[in-house]
Amino acid sequence: MGRIVLDQVSKSFGEVEVIPPLDLTIDDGEFTVFVGPSGCGKSTLLRLIAGLEDTTSGHIRIDGEDATNVSPAKRGLAMVFQSYALYPHMSVRKNIAFPMRMAKMSQEEQDKRIDAAAKALNLTDYLDRRPGQLSGGQRQRVAIGRAIVREPSAFLFDEPLSNLDAALRVGMRMEISELHKKLDTTMIYVTHDQVEAMTMADKIVVLQAGVIEQVGTPLELYRTPRNVFVAGFIGSPKMNLIEGAEAAKHDAHTIGIRPEHIDVSTTEGLWQGTVGVAEHLGSDTFIHIHGVPGCEPMTVRTDGEFGVKHGDTVYLTPNLAHLHRFDAEGLRLE
Amino acid sequence: MATQHSRSAARLMMAPAVILLLGWMLVPLTMTLFFSFKKYLPLRGDSVANGLEWVGFANYARFLSSSSFWPSVQATLIIVGGVLVITIVFGILLAILLDQPMWGQGVVRIMVIAPFFVMPTVSALVWKNMFMDPTNGILAHLWKAFGAEPVQWLSQASLPSLILIVSWQWLPFATLILLTAIQSLDSEQLEAAEMDGAPVLKRFWFIILPHLSRAITIVILIQTIFLLAIFAEIFVTTGGAFGTKTLSYLIFQRVLESQNVGLGSAGGVYAIILANILAVLLMRVVGKNLDA
């Protein structure tokens, strides 16, 4: 079980209100990702749920019980920190055993769970090493192992992959997703990386300045962003947002079109522009195009073989079925 | 690029420092060794110019057989041990206290360091005359206020008093080193331990104390070096009486009060041996903490 309900939860540090009162429900077994730019309050929100920060007002309910004033240890949650927070003077085995030792679990049960966790996380050969002798990815797995053995009602991840290199990050992303499928436990995951959010989440919570901008599945957020912020934040490369005369043609203050929903041609099209930088990724090419009115530069995605170079003139045609329209307040128009 | 050429250049450039350090240590050491095998009583007319009589190990035998020798070793060890225990226990507590955010933190930290800047002679005199004086001292007044007989600190409880004075001087040093160590502790580790279900005392025992082990080792090693040689505190308080005669004080008495340079030098060699025994012991016991 691991249903977490936030009811009008707010947090202020002194005079500064970091999180205005917000409501949020995280269902049992759900993989929820808090995503937003740095300083948006996503980590603070996670720490409120963990109990490492006290709420200024409002209630946190875990499995129906009010946990607002319950100590972090008694909430039944396990957390994986950005710095992993392994205990450097203890071996991997002792690190993983620490929460069970604190809970005064029998040695037999401890060994059983350590072995199971080590096997699941490929740590069996490293149990007697110190954290300092492990690579970043291994440390990450030890931190996860320490969380697993407690059999918590929910896992909390605070930007766990941001200290890993790109290749390792993709691998760990998969491992955490698989872990979630296997354990079927609630997970709350904080990240500033929208790719992590899109690939892992059952439910994404987009935050900005402590306010929830939108909650939904990755595809909901991709297809129907509720406002300009979400539209610009979700998707890679970013959605092109066009203001001015071009937007007015569609009865909107701002229109948005994703790079993958624009056709590029060297002969004809709706908009004309010159190629600035072309990023060749092999499978795709991202071209930054200058000179399109209301959007500087405009990014488009084409197939990897599309041969243009700096200074070429190209013509663009947006796929109108995928056009997003926003009003002056930045809210989505249907 | 450690070529033959650059290596010899490096040696040449290090030479002044090496020569200076060696001279600093070797000259007094050789002189001490030299005198320790000689009969050298300046008041009886012995002098280096006239040549000194070789007496072999007679000085060593005499120093060792003196009734003051073993008690002085004991007093030295008690003082070193007592001060170490007090400064480390209270140093850790003070460091934790000073690490808490509080009003006036900067001022308090400076005031905590202050005793370290007071010269040993001065601080010992202040303790002797203002605190421990059996008629006018603050402690005597305190005892009287409760209707008790004032304690004659420096004669009735001479070793504990001396340990108290020296601890007061060295507590800031220990506190300072331990405070910087505590500040370098990753707060996420403490939070992780908190989430893992460790209450305050267990967090101290399992996280903070192991984190401090290296700093504690350094405090023990450095303080031992200096505490073996304390002198001023004894000189101005008890003058070596009431069982406070340490090895270094005994050597001082042999050389200056008895005017027996040879005997004192032999004592000095014993002091070197004692210091080395302690150093080896300490490195065995706590030195492994220094390995990264």
Any overview of this molecule?
The complex is a heterodimer of chains A (334) and B (292). With 334 residues, chain A is an alpha+beta fold. Chain A folds into 2 domains: 4-230, 3-Layer(aba) Sandwich (Rossmann fold), CATH 3.40.50.300; 238-333, Beta Barrel (OB fold (Dihydrolipoamide Acetyltransferase, E2P)), CATH 2.40.50. Chain A is built from 9 helices and 19 strands. In chain A, the strands form 4 sheets. In chain A, strands 6-7-8-3-9-10 form a 6-stranded mixed β-sheet, sandwiched between helices. In chain A, strands 13-17-14-15-16 form a 5-stranded antiparallel β-sheet, with no helix packed on it. In chain A, strand 4 (57-62) and strand 5 form a beta hairpin. In chain A, helix 2 packs across helix 3 (107-120) and helix 2 packs parallel to helix 4 (136-148). The radius of gyration of chain A is 23 Å and the shape is globular. In chain A, 40% of the residues are buried. Helix content of chain B is 72%, strand content 1%. Chain B has helices spanning 4-36, 58-65, 69-99, 105-113, 120-131, 138-145, 153-156, 158-183, 187-195, 200-227, 232-237, 247-257, 261-285, and strands at 38-39, 53-54. The model of chain B has no long low-confidence stretch (mean pLDDT 85). Chains A and B meet through strand 6 and helix 2 of A and helix 9 and helix 10 of B. Chain B: One of its GO terms (cellular component) is plasma membrane. Chain B: InterPro entries: ABC_transporter_permease (IPR051393), MetI-like (IPR000515), MetI-like_sf (IPR035906).
What is the top-level CATH class of the largest domain in chain A? Alpha Beta
User: Given the helix and strand composition of chain B, which structural class is it?
Assistant: mainly alpha
CATH architecture term of the largest domain in chain A: 3-Layer(aba) Sandwich
> What is the 3D form of chain B?
globular
Q: How much β-strand is present in the residues of chain B?
A: under 5%
> How many H/I helical runs of chain A?
9
Low-confidence stretches of chain A: none
The CATH topology assignment of the domain at 67-259 in chain B is MetI-like fold
Strand order of the largest sheet of chain B: 1-2
By CATH, the architecture of the domain at 67-259 in chain B is named Orthogonal Bundle
Order of helices and strands of chain B: HEEHHHHHHHHHHHH
